[in-house]
Every structure is written in structure tokens, then in C-alpha cells.
Amino acid sequence: MKEPNDVILRSVTKVAVVIIFTFSINLFFSGHHLPGGGFIGGLGFAAALTLLFLSYDIETVRENISLDFKKVAVVGVLIAVGTGLGSFLFDAPFLSHTFDYFDLPIFGKTELATAVLFDVGVAMAVIGTAVTVIMTISEDR
Amino acid sequence: MIYTILLISIFFLVLSIIAAVYRLIKGPSIPDKVQALDAIGINLIAVVAIISVMLRTTAFFEVILLIGILSFIGTIAFARYLERGVVIEHKRSK
């Protein structure tokens, strides 16, 4: 009985993971005017990590990405609440946001919004929660 | 004219999804069910693409990519479960 190997799966994963990471970052930044945003960007990120866990194993991925994903979730929730509380500094209601147009060197005229900071928190919370759930389920003992 | 053609093709795609759902519920063995799930994903991609042609918008292309990625990962997870019995290995076997 030949021992099963997954050379094809691992070769495809090496290419596809890069594409999925890039796509989820694009989805994250397009979330202000187009479909996308922090939640679905984080889910795409978690999907790419799940693909890595599937084609390799937990030990190998943890050696290379040595983040504690529970802490990622906690930090994300703190960032999201903190940006909401930050609007109190300017006498504005909770979670109100602002935006302005800046001239950046490469991108030209760019719209920068404070809602992106809130979205960073949401994305980190989603990534941390999803990856923690998947790793907890997959443990045998 | 083209609108009618697109409506008819959506109708047939929905028929195909219904047939796949029947196979998903009734399927005699587990590989049949997995293949039916994959076929449902592919038909969903086709329906979304046809709808984005009908509405003349590019806003749904990300939906297509996302359904493709999630369907791919789901199929891989089911295939690993069927072949190895374990979805995510804790330590590399060799």
C-alpha cells in the first residue's frame, strides 16, 4: 500500500494562498464604496489560513505564523471599541466617523476615512475568532 | 432578445441546482453528496455571473471570486476527510 502524499495540493496551495491573501486585502480596502469591508476581508483571510492548515499541518503553520489568534481577536475588539470611544474626544456621538481628501505621493488624491481604523479592528476580531474556532475543532484530544 | 436568453439560462441553471440539491439530500454515498455540493457552488457562480451581465454591473465579480474560493476550500476539506478520516493533521505524518 503506497503511502498517500499530497504534492499537487501543496503546490496549488503555494500559489492560491498568495492570490487569496491579495484578494482579501483588496476586499478589505474596497469596503467603503464597493462590496467588501472588514468582516468579509477577515473571513477571506481566515479562509486562506484554513487552506494552509488543510494542506500542511498545524505544527508547520504555527512555526511560521507564531501569532496567538486569541490575542488577535482581543486586540481587534479593543481597537474597534477604542475608535468608537475616540469620537468622544471631538464632542461627537459614539462611533461617528469623518473623512478627508489628501494628496499622497503615489496614489494621488486619496480619500482617507477613520472608518478604516474601525474596520481594522473588525477584521482582526473576525480573523482571531475564525482561526481559533477552526483550530479548537480540529484538535483530536 | 438577449434578456430573454439570459432569463432562460437562469431558469435551466436553477433546475440544475434543484437536481443537485436532490442528490445532496438523497445521495446514496457520501462522495455523491460532496460532488453535489461542489456542483451547487459552480452553478451559483454561473447564476451570479449571468445576473451581473443582466444588470450591466461589475460589482458582483468579487462575489464570484469569493464563492469560488470558499467552494474550493470546502471541497478540499471534504476530500481530506473522506481519504484520511481527519481534516486537519496535528503533526506531519512523515
From TrEMBL, chain A:
This is Na(+)/H(+) antiporter subunit B. It is a multi-pass membrane protein. Keywords: Cell membrane, Membrane, Transmembrane, Transmembrane helix. InterPro entries: CPA3_antiporter_subunitB, MnhB. The chain crosses the membrane at residues 12-30, 36-56, 72-95, 115-137. The keyword Transcription regulation does not apply. It is found in: Cell membrane. It comes from the Bacteria. Residues 8-131 form the Na+/H+ antiporter MnhB subunit-related protein domain. NCBIfam families: PRK12573.1. Belongs to the CPA3 antiporters (TC 2.A.63) subunit B family. One of its GO terms (cellular component) is plasma membrane.
UniProtKB/TrEMBL annotation, chain B:
InterPro entries: MrpF/PhaF-like. GO terms for molecular function: sodium:proton antiporter activity. One of its GO terms (cellular component) is plasma membrane. The keyword Transmembrane helix applies. It holds the Pfam family MrpF_PhaF. The keyword Transport applies. The chain crosses the membrane at residues 6-25, 37-55, 61-82. It comes from the Bacteria. Belongs to the CPA3 antiporters (TC 2.A.63) subunit F family. This is Na(+)/H(+) antiporter subunit F1. It comes from Bacillus mesophilum.
